[in-house]
Amino acid sequence: MKIMHIADLHIGRTINQHPLLADQSYMLDQLIKEVDHQQIELVIIAGDIYDRTLPSKEAVQLFESFIHQLNIERKLPVLAVSGNHDGASRLGYGKEWFRTHQFYLSTAIEDCFKPVTLKEIDFYLLPYIEPAEAKIYFNDDTIQTHKESYEKIVEEINAQKNSGRKSVIVSHLFIQGGQESDSERPLSMGAVEFVPQSVFKGFDYVALGHLHHPFAIQSDTIFYSGSLLKYSFSEASQPKGYRLVTIDEGVKSIFMPLKPLRDLQVIEGDYAAMIDNHQSIESEHYYQFILHNMRHIKDPMTRLKAVYPNLLELRYAEDSKADKEIKVEVDERSDIEIIEQFAMNMTDEPLTHNQQQIIARLLKEVQHETY
Amino acid sequence: MKIMHIADLHIGRTINQHPLLADQSYMLDQLIKEVDHQQIELVIIAGDIYDRTLPSKEAVQLFESFIHQLNIERKLPVLAVSGNHDGASRLGYGKEWFRTHQFYLSTAIEDCFKPVTLKEIDFYLLPYIEPAEAKIYFNDDTIQTHKESYEKIVEEINAQKNSGRKSVIVSHLFIQGGQESDSERPLSMGAVEFVPQSVFKGFDYVALGHLHHPFAIQSDTIFYSGSLLKYSFSEASQPKGYRLVTIDEGVKSIFMPLKPLRDLQVIEGDYAAMIDNHQSIESEHYYQFILHNMRHIKDPMTRLKAVYPNLLELRYAEDSKADKEIKVEVDERSDIEIIEQFAMNMTDEPLTHNQQQIIARLLKEVQHETY
Predict the structure, then answer these.
(1) Domain boundaries along the sequence of chain B
(2) For residue A101, what pLDDT band results from cuts at 50, 70 and 90?
(3) Are the CB atoms for B287 and B308 separated by under 8 Å?
(4) What CATH number should be reported for the domain whose range is A2-257?
(5) What is the rounded distance in angstroms from the CA atom of residue B224 to the CA atom of residue B209?
(6) What 8-state DSSP symbol labels residue A166?
(7) Which residues of B touch A100 (CB under 8 A)?
(8) pLDDT digits (tens, 9 = 90+) for B180-204
(9) CA A191 to CA B49: how far, in whole Å?
(10) Subunit contact A93:B93, Cβ cutoff 8 A
(11) Per-residue pLDDT for A248 more than 50?
(12) Is A113 helix (H, G, I), strand (E, B) or coil?
């Protein structure tokens, strides 16, 4: 069986107020093309379909159109779970009607115990679950963490599992040892979020969502597909696409990168060079620029946007350097040395003798007041 | 064929910030009971399912549960159109999946031309249409009014109608001659809203929504079901329920009233009597009180609410009287007479001689300044 495993579509997401709907629509079209090209037989969506609990009308339309193409037009089964960004109850609207079309949507604990069996493989659809939900569902006050929640749920699944068939779990969670990016919202404040890999022992494939890196975890059976697009600049170097999973005698999961409409890149450089030599980089991509020698420029963002219309973030290269140096060495220096270094970082010039004297006097006054 | 015709559910509606969801849930349960009791074969919902374009999670859940009971549990066909309160595109989410369950949901012009045929009857599902939408759809700039929009649409329907079968139109509009209530929002600002009855000539039954009175129009073939509940105090004397429509050789439409969880009533009375003799009326109902002799009471709303927890609106009986008298007679009186009458209305006492003199002096000063 050939399966497309995707997750973290985050339809409706913006970066610095810039809407990404056109980029998402383009990428979903690429997925549809791959479905046809690879003769995919089943599509798995492992949560965070939308970016917000209450998605916009346009976001809902885009998702409906994607699912329509897969499930109504191509009659492909689709298995989906809700993620921590999704509003489970809103997303679940209509799920009873969708089922008969083999669009299986799981948005609550009670949806996960009865598997969907396709081609002699049992698929368990386990949505993102808050520990508080599990606590109520099992009427068990000892459940406090994600680990405890999923342990309990999977224990229940295991108790009724058909050992004669291969089994797959689809879920949305933070597996222990997984590599994070900046754009994954913490699952819950305070609670331990990690779920140990051992919880999923005995499953032939674990199709996960939540972490945005397609190689966020090293395992033979547990895989993240990664997100649909780069959703933060910390993801600039991550590949994005889908996992092509083949389950027959054995199980294989290969990450298949796709080319987005516009890439998202972090570029460090010199202000003047970026303005002058813009032919060397694609002007339409999304950028975070970290530029040197830009302090003297008035409103550099506007000037740069004239050349790079999708520039989303602009930083002064010096700032980050200064921050780092001061952070590292502050413990080892005297007060006057710290101030001298700070002034140097800010102005690129050492303090004059006169300035040094003024600061020394002020420091004395301040210390006098304190003691 | 036995049909239940309902409309204007307005799920999620509030009156003066008071949520009515529990009342709506109760009333929908009564409808389900009637469906079983009357052995209903088809349910028609003629628009304004929700009260707002973006209904709350709870409103969506309540509607889904209602439809689930009808369409999934009882396998009854359901025909529904969007109304002017509904967000057509959000409401339409999933409609392609619903169709195969015989839950037919029409939310756009293009949905209305192909009838749903059940038991040899053609049902045309015509959602609420803005003239601007019809103008674009037909690429016809002469379409400016609701009348012109629906004329054009029904003309198109008539052109392809099967004359051998009975035909029903389900729609949400303001039929000419219909009786309004306070809680129907105007369909569009400026445009003529009325659609003449003659537009629907040749249809055996026209199941309408929009006007909240179940007897809003006198016709042999055109009927409003009225709203699910009394949604404004102007509807206090209207019956609420559903229409039981029987289509066989002939067509019959009987209004069937249902008892709500709490009634909504307007009561005029005396403050002291309402506080003292509260056993004479149901304390749990929704009320608008118009009370006499209440001017001297501090915070009467709080006192009354202790007795009538669902009191939603409180008016001073005197106010409305005073307003009217001043409006009528102001042209025929001198300035001092108008002020004397106003003071009398407000305080129930005539002005003293001293007060009269002060007002006369002030009037003189004001007039002196003006001329």
Answers:
(1) 2-257, 264-319, 333-370
(2) very high
(3) yes
(4) 3.60.21.10
(5) 6
(6) E
(7) 100-101
(8) 777 777 766 555 688 999 999 999 9
(9) 40
(10) yes
(11) yes
(12) coil
pLDDT at B369: 66
What are the start-end ranges of the E strands in chain B? 2-6, 14-15, 18-19, 42-46, 78-81, 103-106, 116-118, 121-126, 166-172, 174-175, 194-195, 205-209, 222-224, 241-247, 251-257, 264-270, 286-292, 311-316
Angle value at C-alpha B330, between B324 and B334, nearest 5 degrees: 145
Chain A nearest-CA residue for B103: A97
Nearest to B94 among A54, A57, A94 (CB): A94
Closest by Cα among B121, B82, B80 to B101: B80
Given a cut of 50, is residue B321 above it in pLDDT? no
Q: What is the C-alpha separation between A25 and B358, in angstroms, rounded?
A: 76
d(CA A66, CA A34): 13
The fraction of chain B above a pLDDT of 90, given in percent, is: 68
Q: Is the pLDDT of residue B320 over 70?
A: no
Best mutation site among A97, A103, A104, A105 for testing chain B: the one with the most B CBs within 10 Å?
A97
The predicted pLDDT at position A188 comes to 60
Token pair belonging to B211: 């006007």
Is the Cβ pair A89, B61 closer than 8 Å? yes
Number of C-alpha atoms within 13 angstroms, CB side, residue A130?
12
- The beta-carbon neighbor of B101 closest among A57, A72, A97 is A97
CA separation for the pair A287, B215 (Å, rounded): 63
| Contact by Cβ (8 Å): B255, B239 | yes
Structure tokens at B21: 């969801």
pLDDT in tens, A325-351: 445 456 677 888 888 877 877 776 788
Residue of B nearest to A63 (CA): B93
Nearest to B93 among A64, A71, A72 (CB): A64
Contacts of A328 (CB under 8 A, 6+ apart): none
Are residues A72 and B97, on separate chains, in Cβ contact within 8 Å?
yes
Q: What pairing do the DSSP bridges indicate for beta strands A166-172 and A205-209?
A: parallel
pLDDT given for residue B324 in this prediction: 47
Give the residue with greater pLDDT, A189 vs A68: A68
Residues of B whose CB is below 8 A from A98: 94, 97
Residue B36, class by beta-carbon neighbours within 10 Å (0-12 exposed, 13-18 middle, 19+ buried)? exposed
Contact B98 A96 (CB under 8 A): no
Q: What is the pLDDT of residues B156-170, one digit of tens each?
A: 999 989 888 999 999
Tokens of A8: 């973290």
Q: Are B308 and B278 in contact (CB under 8 A)?
A: yes
pLDDT band at A258 (very low <50, low <70, confident <90, very high): very high
Beta bridge partners of B205: B168
* Overall average pLDDT of the B126-132 stretch: 95
Q: Which residues of A touch B90 (CB under 8 A)?
A: 57, 60
Residue contact A97–B103, C-beta within 8 A: yes
**Residues for chain A: how many in total?**
371
Q: Which residues of B touch A (CB under 8 A)?
A: 54, 57, 60-61, 64, 68, 71-72, 87, 89-90, 93-94, 96-98, 100-101, 103
